[in-house]
C-alpha cells in the first residue's frame, strides 16, 4: 500500500492510507444466500481485493466508513468485452479482463422491466420470494436520487401486487367508526369525547359513539391507499428512473386509483401492528410489507419523494434469482397450452432444478445462469451441476424416461445481441447449441430488456 493518496490511482486500484489500513483487515465477504454473495473480499499479502458478485445494491464495506455501490453488470460495454474473449479465457479459473478500447454507448440492463415481466405472469409472480434484502438497522448511506436502485424496485413490486388485489376485488372487513349521532345510540358511548363534544356545548340530543362497520374503509385498505399516493408522487418526480416502463407503471396507477376513491388515507400505526392476515387474501400480507418498506424509505414524509439527495439503507437485489424467474415467466407466457409441462424449481433430495420441461417430444433440464461466459465458452462446474440433476431418479420418473436414455441438459444465459426473444419450446429446441466437449449438453442465449 502507498501512503501518498495524491498520486493518480491505476484503474481498479484504490490506495488506502496506512492509518486506515487496520480498518480493512476486519472486512469479510458478505453472503446473500447459499449461491450468491453481496460482495467478496480477499486479502493477498499487502493487497485487499474487493469483488462484486452477481447481486446489485449498496452497502458499507465493514466498518471502514466507505461504501460499495454495484450496478447491473450486463450492458453493451461488458457484452463486447466478453465477445473478445476466447473459449479458453472463459474457463472457470479465468478472471474478467479489462479493456479501454471498447467504444459506443453503455446500454444498461433494465432490471425493473424484468421485475414487471415476472410479476405480470401468475405462475412466476407466486415464486417471487427473497429477491431483495434491506438492512434497516444499519446507518443509511447518502446518495443522489438518480442513483437510487431500491425505491423503484419496491414501487414496481408494490404496484404489481396492488394491481392483482384490485383485479380480484378489495377485501371487506370490520372497522371502527366514531361518530356524533343524533337522537340515537349505536355501539358504545365514548364518555370523554361525549362530554367534550356535547355536554360542554349543551348538545343534549347527540351522543358520541363508537361502533363497528363492515366495508372497504378498514386500516389495511387505508394503508394501501397511502402507499399508492407515495408511489404516484415518486413516479412523477423521478420519471427517468423508470425508463421504458414508465407508461406501464402509470397505467397500473390509473387502474388502481378508482378502487380507492371512497377510502380514507388516515392510518393508525397501532391498528396496522395488530392486523391478523387472512389466508384467503395472501397478497395483502406482501403488499403491506412492501408498502411499509416504501414509507420507511421516506420516513413517512411525502415531500422527500422529490429530494435530489436521499439516505438509503444498505440493500441487495438477487439478480441470478430474478433472471431465473424472468426466463420462467417468458416460457410460461410463450407456451400457454403447454405451461403445465414447464416446472419451476422441481425439488428432489434437497436439490432444486431451475426449470424442467416434461413435454413428450421435448424433455430437458434447464439451468438459468446469469453469466456472460457462455457466449464463447463454458463453466465446467455449472455443466457438472446440471448434468447431475439429469441423473436424479425422481427427474427421470417425472419425465417417464426408462432405459439408458440420457436426458438433454440446457444452460440458458444472457446474450444482449444474438439471444432469442421467442421463448416457445419449439424455438428453444431449434436454437439451442450443443457444447462440443459434452454429450447432450446445450446452451442458449436470450435477450434481456435494456435501457
Explain what the structure shows:
- It is a single chain.
- The model is unreliable at 1-11 and 84-104 (pLDDT under 50).
- The chain has 14 helices and 18 strands.
- It has helices at residues 21-25, 76-83, 111-120, 122-125, 150-168, 191-199, 219-237, 246-256, 269-273, 282-297, 319-334, 380-390, 393-398, 425-431; strands spanning 30-31, 37-44, 47-52, 56-60, 67-70, 132-134, 141-144, 173-182, 188-189, 206-215, 309-312, 315-317, 342-348, 351-359, 362-368, 408-414, 433-434, 441-446.
- The chain is 32% helix and 22% strand.
- The strands form 5 sheets. The protein has a 6-stranded mixed β-sheet, sandwiched between helices.
- Helix 3 (111-120) packs parallel to helix 5, helix 5 (150-168) packs across helix 7 (219-237) and helix 5 packs antiparallel against helix 10 (282-297).
- With 451 residues, the chain is of the alpha+beta class.
- The chain folds into 4 domains: 1-69, no CATH class; 113-172 and 217-317, no CATH class; 173-215, no CATH class; 320-446, 3-Layer(aba) Sandwich (Trna Endonuclease, Chain: A, domain 1).
Distance between the termini: 39 Å
Coarse shape: globular
Q: Number of helical runs?
A: 14
Q: Rg from C-alpha positions?
A: 27 Å
Poorly predicted runs of 5 or more residues? 1-11, 84-104
Helix content: 25-40%
Could you give a short account of the major beta sheet?
Answer: 6 strands, mixed
